[in-house]
Amino acid sequence: MKKWIIIGAVLVVVLGLFGSGYLLVSRLGGGTDLPPEESALDTGGAPVEVEMGEVSSELVLDAAVRAEPGEDVKARNGGTVAHLWVGEGAEVESGAPIVNVKVPDGSAPVTGDGGEAPSAPATRETTLYAPAGGTVSGLEDVLVGDVLEPGSVVATVAPDEFRAVASIPPNDLYRFYEEPGDILLQIDQGPPASECAFLSLGAVEDGGAAPEEGGAGGGGGGGAELACRVPADLEVFDGVRGKLSVSTGRAENVLVVPVTAVRGNVDSGEVVVIAGDGTEETREVELGVSDGSLIEVTKGLSVGDMVLDPVPLDPRFDVPGGQDSEEEPLTEEEIAVEEVE
Prior knowledge:
Elements: H1 2-28, H2 36-39, E1 46-49, E2 51-67, E3 71-75, E4 79-84, E5 91-92, E6 97-104, E7 123-129, E8 134-137, E9 147-148, E10 152-158, E11 162-168, E12 182-187, E13 194-195, E14 197-202, E15 224-229, E16 241-258, E17 263-266, E18 268-274, E19 280-290, E20 294-299, E21 306-309, H3 332-340
Antiparallel strand pairs: 1-21, 2-11, 2-16, 3-10, 4-6, 4-9, 5-8, 6-7, 8-10, 11-15, 12-13, 12-16, 14-15, 16-20, 17-18, 18-19, 19-20
């Protein structure tokens, strides 16, 4: 009986030493080669078929309503105010007279006759006209006899119109494939949404446009400003806020794939095409409109092709040492548990 107990104890010790040796060897990275399919990185990708479809790209942007800026009435050559044709707040048409100004007449002589003292310089009277139709402002402090410096602004004529403006974050500019032709304006706590005719898309003006929710601006001084004309029959006020729904591109009956199956989303990119025998080929493609979920492929693929979705990360960026690939060191308790197992 003692003999079998001794033999059993010896077997337990031997098996324990074998298990500890296996654990030590596995920690040191030797003697435990895994099959390639288990040690390879699993991207979770699966083949998806290239199909015909429709893509419509839309952006929703925070917006603010601004009164249309007026045009200045300038006294380019300066002079003296001789006559006021209209008053502050007057409604005028384009080309209406605003003010008369006396300016020196350089063509007339300034010397006196027969030794007399020189006479006062001759003057001529010119009229300054409204550069556009609208409401006149800036005349409340202008009086007959006032002397104007060259280039002085005498008045401003502003049309009774409004525009809605929105700042576009720099990266969203890639989504403007054509001049936006379909814009809807929704005023917060205001009338129903209405069409807003496209005016311009350009650099952000001084002061920026509508800040994003939370008071932030359009993004670090970059990006651009989109402006559209508020309909004349829509009741708005300078400074009211709302949103713009902007159609930035549309494509029908085109080849589409998920955006996650493409490296790159603008102009050109890469996909991984899976052949019938399972082999993979990285192929360059040309791209069109994207709605954030699907993207148009204009060249490089055909209906029925199979592509990997999601596409693996470009190996030039898939480098070790990244935050996601770093593992936390095992604690003493975790090491003890593994040794017991």
